Amino acid sequence: MRLKISLLKEPKHILLILINLIVISLLLLCVLCLLNMVTHQELVSCVGWTTAEELYSCSDDHQIVKWNLLTGETSQIVKLPDDIYPIDLHWFPKSLGIKKQTQAEIFVLTSSDGKFHLISKLGRVEKSVDAHSGAVLAGRWNYEGTALVTVGEDGQIKIWSKTGMLRSTLAHQGTPVYSVAWGPDSEKVLYTAGKQLIIKPLQPNAKILQWKAHDGIILKVDWNSVNDLILSAGEDCKYKVWDSYGRPLYSSQPHEHPITSVAWAPDGELFAVGSFHTLRLCDKTGWSYALEKPNTGSIFNIAWSIDGTQIAGACGNGHVVFAHVVEQRWEWKNFQVTLTKRRTMQVRNVLNDAVDLLEFRDRVIKASLNYAHLVVSTSLQCYVFSTKNWNTPLIFDLKEGTVSLILQAERHFLLVDGGGIYLYSYEGRFLSSPKFPGMRTDILNAQTVSLSNDTIAIKDKADEKIIFLFEASTGKPMGDGKFLSYKNEVLEIALDQKGLTNDRKIAFIDKNRDLYITSVKRFGKEEQIIKLGTMVHTLAWSDTCNILCGLQDTRFTVWYYPNTVYVDRDILPKTLYERDASEFSKNPHIVSFVGNQVTIRRADGSLVHISISPYPAILHEYVSSSKWEDAVRLCRFVKEQTMWACLAAMAVANQDMTTAEIAYAAIGEIDKVQYINSIKNLPSKESKMAHILMFSGNIQEAEIVLLQAGLVYQAIQININLYNWERALELAVKYKTHVDTVLAYRQKFLETFGKQETNKRYLQYAEGLQIDWEKIKAKIEMEITKERERSSGSQPTKSTGLKH
Ligand SMILES: *[C@@H]1O[C@H](CO)[C@@H](O)[C@H](O)[C@H]1NC(C)=O
Fold it and tell me: Which of 119, 413, 723, 756 has its C-alpha lying 20 to 30 A from 509's C-alpha?
């Protein structure tokens, strides 16, 4: 990825064009130089976008200038009085869900005279408020536009209403506060205090977080609402990335000059850094994509356009620098797609070196390449290309325009914009638009939304412990609208992609970095949430089968069959592949898991491909089409314990006990082989089913199966076998049968362990009852015979199934 820079100085002057100018921007610049442009004569202190094509800039020459990038015109909006030196500008947030025609109408301008001003789009100063003694160094609206925070040379942090009424003085610092940012929930404020960063909640008496962040005065901060990460820039010539707990994630090398500006792209994937004659584009993990040396002086302020495709910088030498992001890359199998210009993509098929050029009417904003389709959103339209045919894309108009996220599944894809979440088929048909109360789509990203053929999962921001689940085709909440709620905050979610809808699983990482798996079908009895791993930083499901991989502490782990936890948790470790991953250093991220290739981006930005064994995927395929003999043959051929362990779990999950027996034998689990053997000999299919469920630890379900089949004695017996004495007696009493059987086993149990009966209910029922083992054995024998006769057809030969 690169930045393509254009610098506009005075009218009718040669423009400084710094790096490989491309035709489009050349044209744009030429148009600009022919126009009667107004530009600044002095230091530009701040800039702010109204739309993706329109920018306002303020300067020490007291002018506020509007830049229209489509027509190339600039115009003076207003000339402020000579005593007002603008310092910071922030547009009132565009309300969510409102069409793009409605633009932000006012902005706040802070100035050196201790005031802030609310100024309309047309340049009318609606209100000027005395705010601080000394200069007001920064002013920011919160995300909802319900409050404004200002900070000043006087060291005060003040909160104002939308109309500029003082609400509170949040804090007093001994030193000037240079920069301020709202937390994603608009309930906390981050500000600078010398070398320290402070996060203070608005709520009185709430805990303050403070840490030393730099070795020099901190000049700028920014806090992204999507990834919740913090940027800081200082006079120590470094920029740093922090999480919202103040933990350091990245620190740059010292530069030659102080870092004067930092700014997150709206989607939190990139950020820009400004310094003296320096503009940098960085990935959210801190590594630098591009470094440019424009003739700007110090860049005091950077603003990203709303669609995240370009930036503007306020330059110390009176320039406004524009740059847009190009050369983004997408890869899938043998295809490489590169955004070469703002409206052009190049597709390269690495198999035959064929190159296709894709031209778009408008600027490309987002793209995604997966499942044999390239989905591109421009400022007005969505294009869908099949990798089989690059010439005839399907094109449809977008509702709002600025798509912030594209997610793909095999069947359909999802577009997220400021107003909503929209699911489309690859034929361009609108399918659904899931919603939940208080939904904020501006903060969703690939970690908080997940899509499969049948399900859309969304992690909520208002309550981070909740995951909303929707039926993809209708956009309706799953089941009876029960969402998944967990005891901790959830950081990242991912749906598996294959298999039946009823088996759909979701994996998630909680704030302790523990990895869990659970079923998305939440009706009826709540599915268990089971832990799969710890210290997991990033995860991905394979696109071809339900294999999960993740980076766990310093290891790369593949869960070849995560479902194992539902079947036989003991053998989970045997179904894993692990290798050392310390070579990936800090904060690696799994970019994709396509086929058996995992792509990891390291902290330095380089991509590493890991190939995992192809055999587990083949095993998944055999099992999904019930080719058990092929599956066994494959395991014999591969001769790996992991394969046999996966097969064992897969066979139990699919109740193929013959295969399970072979597989368990191969991994030396002799106890299990014996148990499976005993299951095979059970007299009815319900009993077999119940004991398979018990084998997987699903006692309650096993009991339900038996009771529904009228096998009350068998249901009582499984509880006896598990020493669930209360339940055994409860069932016997409820169904008025085998009370004596339960009492007899209980007595035998107590005798074996040399204990006295203390349980009240047992004491009550035991009173006056004479245990007659002969009678009980006869009754049991009868039950078994009855069961065997009932289930006609394939009749087992023995009936030694139940453990006594
Ligand atoms: C997902 O949808 C695609 C296209 O409809 C279909 O070919 C594929 O089999 C589906 N996969 C699953 C697991 O349902």
Answer: 413
